[in-house]
Structure formats: C-alpha cells, structure tokens
C-alpha cells in the first residue's frame, strides 16, 4: 500500500491528462503497489475536455487537481503542477502508463545507488512483458536522422543496454521519470516553447550541459499504452516531426536546421511511398504510409516546429487533434 500523503511528501507525482478517461484509473490505481515505502502526493491537470478531471475527482479524492487552462501542452501543464508540488523529487507520469509493483520503490532505491545523478527513469515493457525498444527516446542528431534513410535508426543500436541492468543514459522518457527538485529548478522546468514531444529531451540536454547525469533503472518497469492505441497515427507523427524541428531550431545552427528538415522530410516521403507500393502484399505498410503521409506531403505544416506564426499550432487546432490532418492539408508548399 502506498505510504499516505503527508504535509511534507518526498515524491510529487505529476500527471497531465488529455481525454484519458479510459486509462487514468489504471494509471493512478497502479501507484499504490508501485510505491510502498515513500510518502507521496499526486497532482493532476486536465488538458482535454474535462472528462478525465471529473473521473479523477470522483474516484481518487486524495489527488490534488489543478484547474484546467485548456490544452496548453505537456510542458506548460507539467510546469504548473511542479509549481504546486511539495516533494523533493518530481515524478512525471503519463496517464497511459501502468506501473508495475515496486516501480517507484526501485527509482527511490536508485537515488541511493546512483546518488550523483539528478534523474532516474524506468523501462517500458511491451504486451509480452519484454522491454519495448520501440518506446525509446533519443537526442536528435544529423547522423541519426540520416541513418533512418537506410531503414535502421542509429538510436536503436545498444538500446537493450540498461533494460536488464541499470545504465547511465543521455536522456530518459518523460512518460515515467523522476527528477531531483533541485535539478528541475536549476533548469527552470520544461521549455514551454514545446507543445508536444522532445520537451524532455530538451530538458536533459540542458541539464547535461550543467553537469547532471541520468540513470535508467532496470527494476522500475511499466506498460505504456503509447498514443492511446494507434501507434502510427498521423497526428502523433506530425507532432513528433514538429517537436524534432523545434529542438533543432533551439539548439542547432541554421544550416543544420535546414538539413534536419530535409532528412526528416525525405525519410517520411520514403516510408510513405514504400507503404503505398507494398501495401497490397504486407498488411503493416498501409499503416506506415498513412502515418507518414502528412509529414511527406505537407512539410510546411511542421518544418518550423512550434513557431507561433509559422509552426504547427498555427495550422492545427490543438483542442481537436483529430482534425489536424485536414488542417495540415491546407498548406501544401515547402
């Protein structure tokens, strides 16, 4: 059983919901067996239509709910929660994550085993209980983007390391990660220029530049129902491309930004065309083509990341992501 909340919790668990009513009960319900030793508090904010907030309020009375401000993005919402948090450690948890028993206990033990670190993250499992390497997060680079054109991303090399034993890593997934409050405050939290995707990568890059280190903890395991179902959804892929370009715009020189755009576009176009050609014979390829279609055919919708005037959010209504495809089709020049 989770140690009860106190006026001075050691862990503050931050959850940002977005139309997550079908999943949130499993997520919050899994915390009790995941954290059996440490006083904690759970803070929640709803970026969606309010249905998730209503369910949380009715089902979990001990959860601290912040008033919704609409769909303000993952970074801004987590920053709001962090400002209200009392814990020495901030644990970011996606609403579509189901923690395994003692997962948070393992992270807390890692703060002792790897005490020089500033962040500790878990291992995501697939439906068969094996490490889900497809759920990895990596720092974008020109060489990695180029490697995608060969059909095998450099980011996949060596990903099994740290899944069976603890490993020091460059970046951790924001779906299940715990950070020392001091490090979070030093970095100023997440950069709110990101709306979705790459915001945690940006945070870890900034922390690393200040000398911080991070560990992936093999015993801290969870299931992540990523994307709430459809793995290669067009809107998810579109936001991922915009997140990557936002990272490039902030951290890279102009020529590297342009090269990153060309490589991302070429990779998406390649997958779209191959998916169309092979779709008759291989069932997965029509989904691949569909997922990459808007990135390939409407590159102007994402090439400027989340720039307020030219970026994705100026062409897509974040309140209704299902309409993102139609919005993106209104812009058809590179």
UniProtKB/TrEMBL annotation:
The organism's superkingdom is given as Bacteria
Instruction: Tell me where the transmembrane regions lie.
Output: 12-32
Task: Give yes or no: UniProt keyword Transmembrane helix.
Answer: yes
Q: Which InterPro entries match?
A: Glyco_trans_2-like (IPR001173)
The stretch of residues making up the signal peptide is none
Region (Disordered): which ranges? 312-334
The protein's UniProt keywords, in alphabetical order, are: Membrane, Transmembrane, Transmembrane helix
Give residue ranges for domain Glycosyltransferase 2-like. 12-124
Q: Which PANTHER family match?
A: RHAMNOSYLTRANSFERASE WBBL
User: What protein name applies here?
Assistant: Glycosyltransferase family 2 protein
**Provenance organism:** Erythrobacter crassostreae
């Amino acid at each position: 059983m989770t140690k009860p909340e106190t006026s001075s919790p050691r862990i503050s668990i931050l959850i940002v919901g977005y139309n997550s009513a079908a999943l949130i009960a499993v997520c919050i319900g899994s915390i009790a067996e995941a954290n059996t030793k440490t006083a904690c508090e759970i803070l929640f904010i709803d970026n969606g239509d309010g249905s998730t907030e209503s369910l949380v309020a009715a089902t979990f009375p001990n959860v601290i709910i912040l008033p919704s401000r609409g769909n303000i993005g993952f970074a801004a919402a987590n920053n709001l929660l962090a400002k209200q948090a009392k814990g020495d450690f901030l644990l970011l948890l996606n609403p579509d994550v189901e923690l395994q028993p003692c997962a948070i206990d393992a992270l807390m033990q890692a703060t002792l085993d790897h005490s020089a670190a500033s962040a500790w993250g878990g291992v995501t499992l697939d439906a068969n209980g094996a490490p889900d390497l497809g759920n990895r997060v990596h720092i974008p680079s020109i060489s990695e983007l180029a490697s995608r054109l060969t059909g095998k991303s450099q980011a996949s090399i060596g990903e099994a390391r740290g899944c069976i034993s603890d490993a020091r890593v460059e970046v951790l997934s924001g779906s299940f990660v715990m950070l020392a409050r001091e490090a979070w405050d030093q970095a100023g939290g997440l950069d709110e220029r990101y709306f979705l995707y790459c915001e945690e990568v940006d945070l870890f890059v900034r922390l690393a530049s200040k000398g911080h280190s991070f560990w992936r903890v093999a015993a801290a395991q969870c299931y992540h129902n990523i994307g709430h179902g459809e793995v290669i959804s067009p809107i998810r892929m579109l936001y991922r491309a915009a997140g990557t370009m936002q990272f490039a715009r902030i951290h890279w020189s102009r020529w590297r930004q342009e090269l990153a755009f060309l490589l991302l576009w070429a990779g998406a176009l390649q997958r779209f065309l191959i998916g169309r050609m092979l779709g008759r014979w291989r069932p997965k390829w029509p989904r691949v083509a569909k997922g990459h279609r808007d990135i390939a055919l409407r590159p102007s919708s994402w090439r400027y990341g989340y720039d307020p005037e030219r970026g994705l959010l100026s062409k897509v209504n974040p309140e209704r992501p299902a309409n993102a495809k139609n919005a993106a089709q209104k812009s058809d020049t590179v």
